[in-house]
Design goal:
The protein is an alpha/beta fold. The chain folds into four domains: 3-171, Regulatory protein AraC (Jelly Rolls), CATH 2.60.120; 216-299, Arc Repressor Mutant, subunit A; 385-501, Rossmann fold; 523-653, Nitrogenase molybdenum iron protein domain (Rossmann fold, 3-Layer(aba) Sandwich). The chain contains 28 helices and 21 strands. The strands form six sheets. A five-stranded antiparallel beta sheet has the order 1-8-3-6-9, with helices on one face. Strand 15, helix 19 and strand 16 (475-477) form a beta-alpha-beta unit. Helix 3 runs antiparallel to helix 4, helix 20 (486-496) packs antiparallel against helix 21 and helix 21 (500-521) runs parallel beside helix 28 (633-653).
Length: 654
């Protein structure tokens, strides 16, 4: 979860609060399979228990925040009485917002994301939640308006605490990580030592923090999970005791009986008989008997396979589990010894010609292995290592099937015919005539898998997305703002795709066309003229620098024109920066390149835009995002020619 990305999208979104509810669960009661009708914050303000969101378990104490998206399945089990609030809301981006925000929303939607947090100042959040609930139940329009304002304050305070306490987040979530790990893998032979290595904490520290949060040691918790699962299987299946013991992680039936009796107060066989006789075999009452089980039945599938090797969670109390198996082990050793003696005897009586035949077979096998090794070595020689956002990646030297999820124009400029991309890039007006055979795979992993790429090109920085791509083909991921120039970008991808010569030749032509455009406007502008590159919508203004699209790279880098000195360096260094509209007169240059849906007449009527000299004198270039957003090499050349022609046209009007 990238909090800063989420904050950007919250800042852009149109948000409506749909409901604010207060609920209480008595001790031992459950909220079962509640499907969230929309994006929801769950705020636990009193009590403790377990929550499941789409099967992922969370341990909640007082002042605990859980967020889930529309359609997520919420379940709550109250260990003590729990009081909680549900804040239901809907958030969408405006239609005319930056493409960058739309793409960010597609890759990491904060309004659908599942996450949790234990705030360090829970009372501050409680005050906002109580205020929202009080105003909501008043049900008048003025109070409803206040609910929206308070909701923003709640979200602001929540994110501020999350940003200020990243270390605290890690500590608070530690017990939850252990709980989730144990709940998912309680049948596996994991030790506290191995778990502590995975989480990078000492076993003693893990045990102490877990017990502080849950009241159980990890071993006690695992035993509780196993026995409650065993109870469920005893009452809902006809599986034997041995099968159930193996399924929940105990290979020793006698130890399983002993630990079950210690926990439940009755042997497992008697437990089954007693409950079946009390409730009636197969009745619904029997299945409801374990509704408060610590194991979330909806989130796990239990399949017994008699060929599967089952073991137990090894810990301070489980080391005796295999004591009863020493006799079996000795018997097995004697059996192995007998087989070895028999095999040696058979080898002694083998005829010489048979031995000779075996030697020939061995030689042939050796030859085959040698040939296979040579083939493998040759295949390895057809790959190379390239540096990416996620480290070094081994890729084919000459890939034939390139899925260009991003950087589509760059790949096409190198003479490569890609087999797949995303619909935003496929809609580029600058790539018409170059897209035959390129399939729109969108965000679909299934579609991407079906086109069988040799290599995948993307600018994602999301580890989860990168991992999915990497399972399909070698994936080269480079963040979108990595390259400072077209030369860097073409050279890099030329090396990745084995198109070094094509990259060098294309850059020669690129430099020639850029030089022609600069020569075309030479001497046409007054000395010291400045240019600003902006985008506006909904009263917001964004400034763009030389690394960006919207004309920034064209104006500042390719045509070599200057920005106003009043624009701070840090704004120009970013891909884009939101600026206060009050700063617009200060940052506006003699000429403006503006991405907008407004007409020149509408801008002239605006009190701020209309006050700018560049607008009044019509020294402003207007285009929409469908043209200005693209910044691949092919688009940049076409845009630069268009901007140069605009400057020439202005000069002719003088």
């Amino acid at each position: 979860m990238n909090i800063n990305d989420h904050i950007q999208l919250w800042d852009q979104a149109i948000v409506r609060v749909l409901d604010v509810r207060q609920n209480t669960l008595e001790q031992g009661k459950c909220l079962k399979k509640y499907t969230l009708p929309t994006s929801t914050f769950v705020y636990i303000v009193r009590g403790r228990g377990r929550l499941w969101l789409d099967g992922d378990v969370h341990f909640a104490d007082r002042f605990y925040v859980l967020h889930g998206g529309k359609g997520a399945c919420l379940e709550i089990e109250a260990e003590t009485a729990i009081e909680y609030f549900l804040i239901l809301y809907k958030a969408v981006l405006p239609q005319n917002c930056l493409y960058d925000f739309k793409l960010l929303m597609q890759s990491d939607n904060p309004f659908e994301k599942a996450y949790s947090y234990t705030p360090y100042d829970g009372l501050a959040l409680l005050e906002y939640v109580q205020m929202m609930h009080r105003d909501w139940i008043q049900a008048n329009k003025l109070d409803m308006l206040q609910v929206r304002g308070v909701f923003y304050q709640f979200v602001h305070r929540l994110f501020r605490q999350m940003l200020q306490s990243s270390e605290a987040i890690s500590q608070n979530n530690l017990a939850e990580q252990v709980l989730r790990f144990l709940s998912d893998r309680y049948q596996e032979p994991k030790s506290m030592e191995s778990l502590s290595l995975e989480l990078n904490y000492s076993p003693q520290y893990l045990t102490r923090k877990f017990k502080e949060q849950t009241g159980f040691s990890p071993i006690e918790y695992v035993i509780k999970l196993r026995i409650e699962k065993a109870q469920f299987l005893l009452l809902t299946t006809d599986a034997t005791l041995q099968e159930i013991a193996l399924n929940v992680g105990y290979s020793d039936l006698f130890y399983f009986n002993r630990i079950f009796k210690k926990y439940a107060g009755i042997a497992p066989g008697k437990f089954r008989n007693k409950h079946l006789s009390d409730q009636g075999q197969g009745s619904n009452h029997t299945k409801k008997a374990l509704k408060n089980s610590i194991v979330n039945q909806t989130s796990q599938n239990y399949i017994y396979n008699e060929n599967e090797k089952h073991s137990q969670f090894i810990g301070e109390e489980d080391y005796t589990m295999n004591k009863g198996s020493k006799t079996v082990m000795l018997s097995t050793l004697w059996l192995c010894f007998a087989i070895m003696v028999s095999a040696c005897s058979a080898a002694t009586n083998t005829p010489r010609n048979a031995s000779s035949g075996n030697t020939t077979g061995t030689e042939k096998t050796s030859d085959n292995q040698s040939a296979n090794s040579s083939t493998t070595a040759a295949q390895l020689n057809e790959t190379k290592i390239v540096s990416t956002h996620f480290g070094d990646v081994e890729v084919p030297i000459n890939p034939k099937r390139v899925a260009s999820i991003d950087y589509l124009g760059t790949v096409i400029a190198l003479g490569v015919e890609p087999i797949g991309s995303n619909n935003v890039l496929l809609n580029s007006p600058y790539l018409k005539g170059h897209l035959e055979g390129v399939e729109d795979v969108g965000d679909s992993i299934e579609k991407l898998l079906s086109i069988e790429p040799d290599i995948i090109i993307t600018h994602t920085t999301k580890p989860e997305a990168y991992e999915k791509y990497s399972e399909i083909a070698p994936t080269v991921s480079i963040a979108s703002n990595t390259f400072n120039s077209v030369h860097e970008e073409l050279t890099y991808f030329g090396e990745v795709l084995g198109k070094e010569n094509e990259a060098a030749e294309w850059l020669k032509q690129y430099d020639l066309h850029t030089a022609e455009a600069k020569e075309k406007i030479a001497g046409l502008l007054p000395e010291g003229s400045t240019f600003s590159v902006f985008q506006e919508y909904d009263g917001q203004v964004f400034a763009f620098g030389p690394k960006s699209g919207r004309g920034g790279r064209n104006i500042y880098q390719m045509l070599g024109l200057a920005a106003p000195t009043a624009i701070p360096e840090n704004i120009l260094a970013n891909t884009y920066s939101k600026i206060s509209i009050e700063k617009l007169p200060e940052y506006a240059g003699d000429y403006i390149v503006l991405t907008t849906e407004s007409s020149l007449e509408e801008l002239k009527k605006d009190p701020i835009w209309g006050s700018l000299e560049a607008v009044r004198e019509e020294r402003i270039f207007l285009w929409n995002e469908e043209r200005s957003w693209y910044r691949d090499p092919i688009a940049l050349l076409a845009q630069t020619k268009e901007l140069a022609d605009w400057i020439v046209g202005l000069a002719k009007l003088k």
